[in-house]
Amino acid sequence: MATGQIFSRTTQALFYNYKQLPIQRMLDFDFLCGRETPSVAGIINPGSEGFQKLFFGQEEIAIPVHSSIEAASSAHPTADVFINFASFRSAAASSMAALKQPTIRVVAIIAEGVPESDTKQLIAYARANNKVVLGPATVGGIQAGAFKIGDTAGTLDNIINCKLYRPGSVGFVSKSGGMSNELYNTIARVTNGIYEGIAIGGDVFPGSTLSDHVLRFNNIPQVKLIVVLGELGGRDEYSLVEALKEGKIHKPVVAWVSGTCARLFKSEVQFGHAGAKSGGELESAQAKNQALKEAGAVVPTSYEAFETAIKETFDKLVVVSVFDRIKSRDNRDKRVQLLQQYAHNNFPSVKYMEYAVQVENYTLSKANNLVLNVDGAIGSLFLDLLSGSGMFTKPEIDEIVDIGYLNGLFVLARSIGLIGHTFDQKRLKQPLYRHPWEDVLYTK
Amino acid sequence: MARKKIREYDSKRLLKQHLNKLAGIQIDIRSAQITESTDFNGLVESEPWLATEKLVVKPDMLFGKRGKSGLVGLNLNLAQVASFIKDRLGEEVEIGGCRGPVTAFIVEPFVPHSHEFYLSVVSNRLGCSISFSDCGGIEIEDNWDKVKSVFIPSEGSFTPDICASLIATLPLEVKGKIEEFIKAVFILFLDLDFTFLEMNPFTLVDGNPYPLDMRGELDDTAAFKNFKKWGDIEFPLPFGRVMSATETFIHDLDEKTSASLKFTVLNPRGRIWTMVAGGGASVIYADTVGDLGYAAELGNYAEYSGAPKEDEVLQYARVIIDCATANPDGRKRALLIGGGIANFTDVAATFNGIIRALREKEAQLKAARIHIYVRRGGPNYQTGLTKMRQLGEEISIPLEVYGPETTMTGICKQAIQCITAAA
């Protein structure tokens, strides 16, 4: 595993075992994100062929239906994700067939109750052939603004709420599919949102593990913060502990392992997820939380404090990565310094600039970052030019200032930015105009 | 996949039956199971060796260290076995901090032996580990350095070379038989979807391997392809887990539906009760009440998921409400109807069943001074939450409703405040 991103805005999937609702939800998400192509290229429904009509925005589209995995793969060679909605009885066989297609890179298995021995065969094959298995027993995953698997993240209003239509900076991985959606919401509340979210599924041996995805997030430049929600049972969290200890993860990790309540049960207990079984001390939530904390992850004292821990860790990142670029007494704007130096050497008089510097000395005594910015420097130097050049009378200068010529300079500078912004929006296919949702969206 | 322990009796039954089928190895295992419902005379008729041989009897309750705990009867005749069982059947014992009654025994011929070997197979993520030692028996943990282990990757096979390293130190005269046996056991392990198997010890009877003690765990999700091979298999509850009538009712309900319905009473006199949607979320609600310092007040663990039908939710909710409202003591109680933000479950639909149950049990809820806290999100949650609010007003029960705008476990704190507030 490891390496980085597994989805993009052009990722297309083959969908095994036709289910109208999850496919329509994928297409609605695509449209919301402004994808040009629908994320489902083809459907495989054993024994049937033809088309299924679905909505891509307002437009009705026909998605081809194939009777076999092989036929679908050769008809859609660019589709590299296989979304398997087969029942637990047949999920393993169809997943193996999909993994064997050279065009398929990622297989997501939704079914719960796939036998352990079958999953182990899938894991072995995927490892040997550099492929990724998500699940079994998972809802899937999502790359915000790019691609989502099946029912992940639920309805459109939830996707809008959690800002999943555009990328944020958080990589999130959990066992539980239900909790993944909860955490998308939590993370959107206290950070700039999800970049990618994966639910690995609740089985004893998931196709890919928590640490597999954390290591992958570590390689994705857009992911700045990693959030992990583990669970009692199994040893998966310890491979994350090892990776942290070995210094393989360079981004902050906020983690919580649920299941601290297991000690309240008198006998061994099996919770809702197959993998969530109380066993030895090492597999307890308490031991795993402790180990993660010792390895350097941010671990709250309870789930209730998880949100605050995510917020605080993210806020620290923002302070480090954004605000230190804002100028301060010890970190002056180079442009201001160069302008001032030039004026000192070449202008006949710099009295307005000196006045501005006095003001700056005063403001700096109030706050470290209230420095003279480039607009202030240009403004004061323009006044020095007007008065020092000897070409304008005092009334003329006053008139120029009153009319707001100087503001014209600043508007000019910003208009370049505005034009650039408009072009950039168009280049990213994100037009500024947004028509009311209810008019354009097919929702259910 | 869910790993389930099976009784020693079933482990040996599967071993005997399938070792013959898969590898042509015949083991003369004879064993009988005795529970409360066993007809002793009938059993002796079908297993006549019981009357003629010297016997061993021990509890078959998924716990180990029976010899060390003095729970094994050795070299007894049938009458002695009967009185051994009579003295202990239904009696509570404590094993590893877990108390519970002994309800099943296994009886076998007494096999005098000099050699004790150890064998185990464990399923791991990337393959299986096989461990073997010629110093098996109850002191195995002290002799763990003498146990040799090999790893067979999922994509690999158990080659003679790998096997040779396990049995290198064995005397030549037993090596062949034991090698053949280990290989056959591994084939059986894979074929029957075992996830764990241990024989401690097995010995040699007339030169042939024979397990004296055996533990097994099956992957119950493989039942759909193995039900014929497994035959009449039982997945007993973990030792010490005794289900109350209400728990049994939900357990039976759970067995009959494709959805998941879980219910465990932790403290019948607890004052915080939960009914939570989702495998992940349900654990977190119980955690949070505990992590906030009120584990002692937590009445139960409950989880429903996988889109149960309205009628199933109704039956489920009735049971939880009955438990939560039992024996009113004048003090306030809290019921948490919680859940995360569903991906695809229709929240309004699942709430219908809960609302029906709450309406039915109005008087009970009031008598027990229950305050209800609801938190849920997901498809159609607005409708579900509105219906809940309306219900609260209609039957005038204190009921607070929250959606995805609040944290999931915020209502745990409120429940704690509710039960700790004066009067």
Unreliably modeled segments of chain B: none
Q: What's the shape of chain A?
A: elongated
In N-to-C order, the SSE pattern of chain A is EHEEEHEHEHEEEHEHEHEHEHHHHHHHH
Give the helix tally of chain A. 16
Report mean pLDDT of chain B, rounded to a whole number.
Answer: 94
Calculate Rg of chain B over CA atoms. 27 Å
Helix content estimate of chain A: 40-55%
Biggest sheet of chain A, strands in spatial order?
Answer: 3-4-2-1-5-6-7
Q: How many helices of chain B?
A: 14
Name the beta content range of chain A.
5-15%
How far apart, in Å, are the first and last alpha carbons of chain B?
47 Å
What integer is the average pLDDT of chain A?
A: 90
Query: Can you count the beta strands of chain A?
Result: 13
The second-level CATH architecture of the largest domain in chain A is: 3-Layer(aba) Sandwich
Largest sheet of chain B: 7 strands, antiparallel
Low-confidence stretches of chain A: 321-325
Named CATH topology of the largest domain in chain A: Rossmann fold
Class from helix and strand fractions of chain B: alpha+beta
Biggest chain pair interface: A-B, 69 and 67 residues
